[in-house]
Design a protein that fits this description.
This protein has one domain: 3-Layer(aba) Sandwich (Aminopeptidase). It has 2 helices and 5 strands; from the N terminus they run ββββαβα. A 5-stranded mixed sheet has the order 1-2-3-4-5. It starts with a strand and ends in a 15-residue tail after the last helix. 27% of the residues are buried.
Length: 95
């Protein structure tokens, strides 16, 4: 599965036939992104698409030295099974 980062649109996408899944974010500060929303079309749910989008967003943040605000409910649930990513959360002590 290929995740594409459309940085000028502040979103990550996975294209599938005539549809696309997306994770959108806002720049909340010079080194902070606020993940707002994750959407996966009904037919693609349960296949790891949202997981791939969240993984790509956190990889982007880590590589750029950004902090993350997880406003998206899916991403907050995803973080429960990916505690290693908590160090990137805004408002948490930096390691």
């Amino acid at each position: 599965m290929q995740v594409e980062h459309l940085e000028d649109e502040n979103r990550f996408v996975v294209r599938m036939d005539d549809e696309e899944a997306e994770l959108t974010y806002l720049r909340a500060g010079p080194k902070v992104i606020d993940i707002q929303h994750t959407y996966v079309p009904d037919g693609a749910r349960g296949h790891g698409v949202a997981e791939a989008l969240a993984t790509a967003a956190f990889r982007f943040a880590r590589e750029r030295g950004y902090r993350v605000v997880p406003s998206c409910p899916f991403v907050r649930r995803w973080l429960e099974t990916h505690p290693e990513e908590a160090k990137l959360l805004e408002g948490r002590p930096r390691p």
